[in-house]
Amino acid sequence: MLALAYSGWQDVPHSWRLMHSQYAGYTGLTRAQRDRAFGTAIPMPMDIFDFWRSELRPWDRYFIQMPHEAFSTNGDKKFVARLVAHVYLLPAIETTDLNKASVVLSWDADPGVLHLKFWEQYRAGQQLIYVSRINRDS
Q1: What angle do helix axes 77-88 and 31-41 make, rounded to 10 degrees?
Q2: SS3 helix, strand, coil % of the chain, rounded to 5?
Q3: pTM exceeding 0.85
């Protein structure tokens, strides 16, 4: 038990230096830069998440529509995009069940192939990046 406590105590200075260096690195950033830091460090194109975020509402449940593509040895692009979205798009919540979604967020995918009716749809320029609000009334 004493050995475990001693071993843990030896790590304290290293942990303190690490926390201090991270604090120093982030303290000068604006709120928007801090919000984007996680995705930027990966790196993911945060302008797509900014576009999605600008059209989401706090109570939205979103479904991410995008093809599985290679991103790194640890995950595909959709997996990594979902990780970033879970943090960056809060308080909106992801659902993996399209039937429970109120919004479809598309990246390199056409929401028209989902055969849903949308009452509102926004597209980011000519790219296949959309925010599509699902019309469940029909």
Answers
A1: 160
A2: 45, 20, 35
A3: no
Residue 49 vs residues 19, 21, 60, 80: alpha-carbon distances, Å: 28, 28, 15, 12
Distance from C-alpha of 89 to C-alpha of 79, rounded to nearest angstrom: 15
34: left (phi over 0), alpha (psi -120 to 50) or beta: alpha
- Convert the pLDDT of each residue in 62-116 to its tens digit: 999 999 888 777 778 999 999 999 999 999 999 999 999 999 999 999 999 999 9
Nearest CA to 106 among 61, 77, 76, 63? 63
| Start-to-end Cα distance in the chain | 66
User: Could you tell me the maximum CA-CA distance found in the chain, to the nearest angstrom?
Assistant: 68
Break the chain into its structural domains and give their ranges: 1-30, 42-134
Backbone angles phi, psi at 44, to 5 degrees: -120, 150
Distance of alpha carbon 42 from alpha carbon 55, whole angstroms: 23
Beta bridge partners of 63: 104
